Amino acid sequence: MLLEDLRKKMLASFDSLLKDFGGLRTGRASVTILDNIMVEAYGNMVPIQQVGTVSAPEARLLTVQVWDASLIKATELAIRNAPIGLSPMVDGSLIRIAIPDLSEERRKEICKLAGKYAEQAKVAVRNIRRDGMDHIKRQEKSKEITEDEHKKTADEIQKLTDEFVKKIDNALESKEKDIMKV
């Protein structure tokens, strides 16, 4: 039961990393680039997907069809101020976002950011491992499990941790290749 819970938590950390990676530009239009953008709407900050439809009609173009005309300016401003280096253009209720080619320097910056995201995911996985190890230490102290069971479970937790760290490293390597691809 403990290992299943730890696996679920580690998988959630990995999924969060993949979501973060989706928000990084690679030079091609992808609707996930705008996933982390929050728009001020009706006094609240909401995800851009809640104010309009985001689509990628062409390889180098994103569009946001804003549903409420009063939110067009706020949506444009949110995109413009996001740290992704895009310049939106308003065309009626449609916001067009041309995806420019990335410079070598910008690609390297994005790779650094991807590395930072991966490191945060590894820290999360290691924290989950630590919590699992603390749990089995408490179980052994309270005589719920034997020393042998403690050692066996600790080894399984470490294997699980190694598996997810490797997944994170592989995802980072793949994302870096995608970003550096010209």
The parts where pLDDT drops under 50 for at least 5 residues are: none
* Secondary structure tally: strands: 6
Shape verdict: elongated
Oligomeric state = single chain
Q: Give the N-to-C terminal Cα separation.
A: 46 Å
- For the residues shown, what is the average pLDDT? 89
Beta-strand residue fraction: 15-25%
Coarse structural class:
alpha+beta
State the helicity in percent bands: 55-70%
Number of helices: 4
Compute the gyration radius: what is it? 21 Å
Reported for the largest beta sheet, the result is: 4 strands, antiparallel
Element order: H for helix, E for strand: HEEEEHEEHH
**Spatial order of strands in the largest sheet:** 3-4-6-5
Write the layout of secondary structure elements.
Blueprint: H1 2-22, E1 38-41, E2 44-47, E3 52-58, E4 61-66, H2 72-81, E5 88-91, E6 94-98, H3 104-141, H4 147-180
Antiparallel strand pairs: 1-2, 3-4, 4-6, 5-6
Helix pairs in contact: 1-3, 1-4, 3-4
Describe this structure in words.
With 182 residues, the chain is of the alpha+beta class. The chain is 57% helix and 16% strand. It is built from four helices and six strands; from the N terminus they run αββββαββαα. A four-stranded antiparallel β-sheet has the order 3-4-6-5, covered by helices on one side. Strands 1-2 form a two-stranded antiparallel ribbon. Strand 3 and strand 4 form a beta hairpin. Helix 1 packs parallel to helix 4 and helix 3 packs antiparallel against helix 4. The radius of gyration is 21 Å and the shape is elongated.
